[in-house]
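Hello support,

Our group uses your service weekly, and this is the first time we've seen a run hang past the timeout. The protein is EfeO-type cupredoxin-like domain-containing protein. I'm not sure whether the cause is the sequence or the server load. Input pasted verbatim:
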Amino acid sequence: MKLKIFLLTLILGSVIIITGCTQQQQQQLTNTLTNNEQGQLKNDDLIDDDSIENDGSKEDDSMDDDDILEDDDLTNDDSLTNDDRSEDEDSVNDDSMTEDNEVKTFNLTAKNFSFSQQEIRVEKGDKVKIVLISEQGFHDWTIDKFNARTSQINTGQTSEVEFIADKAGLFEYYCSIGTHRQMGMVGKLIVE
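Update from on-call engineer: The timeout came from a worker crash unrelated to the input. Re-ran successfully.
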């Protein structure tokens, strides 16, 4: 009996890691397995399909043209002031960005469930290089509007991608693994 519970717990742990379940869903799965093992499974213990988030596919979460802040939009009252920009520029660690032969390189570390930088600022026309280092977990770095994506990497691995920031505006970058994006593993690229 104890071996059976141990094996079910081991399997549950694997499912949670692979699917990226939230803590609430993890608890619900644990309760369901425990109740089932004790012969007490009820309809309330079953997981509703609506309570499970999607798999992070572009179908529901991809940005459309309305999500992009164009140059013309920067002239309204919602635009950043110079004071705001200096504060935001402080959020980019000088050690994480270098310029080499006009390539702006940003070193980002990834861990569950965040990037080391939530904002990257470049000029339109800049050649951008993202160096992603996985400090914890399985991750990638993706930005749809520039068709740029690193390889999917495990803890201790590094991957990089280069692209030209040829569109001005505000663009979301994210980790496309499982539900990492929905769990907040996102950032913004500002192209001025």
